[in-house]
Design a protein that fits this description.
5 helices; two-stranded antiparallel sheet; mainly alpha; 55% helix
Length: 118
């Protein structure tokens, strides 16, 4: 079983959330841990740092999606006035998650879609 405390600590580090804030997302964090556990190629990897980071970044991405109230506007121009926004926290969280997936690719199964024939 993946160590929830280690995932929470990693989540605090990468997200800037306090331990209390992370605790308020405990159901979401547990879900992310379960998803990662189910994707492991071997249970002996469950406390590998790559797995901990993967579960934490997955949770961070999901938390950022729940907190994201961005309008979706990236750039808007009206005459001489131009408005643009920086990358949202969910964009940054997704980048971290993709990096974690790549780092753990040898120890986690890809459960993506595969078309094998007609």
């Amino acid at each position: 079983m993946i160590n929830t405390q280690r995932v929470n600590e990693a989540l605090c580090t990468i997200s800037g959330l306090t331990a209390e804030e992370v605790q308020s997302y405990s159901i979401l964090v547990q879900n992310c841990i379960s998803v990662v556990e189910n994707a492991l190629t071997d249970a002996s990897y469950e406390n590998d740092n790559r797995v901990i980071f993967l579960a934490a970044t997955r949770a961070y991405y999901n938390i950022s999606l729940t907190k994201n109230s961005e309008s979706g506007i990236r750039e808007f121009t009206a005459g001489d006035v131009k408005i643009s926004t920086e990358a949202s926290s969910s964009d940054n969280a997704l980048t971290l998650y993709r990096n974690a997936v790549e780092a753990a690719s040898k120890i986690v199964r890809d459960n993506g879609f595969v078309f094998r024939g007609v």
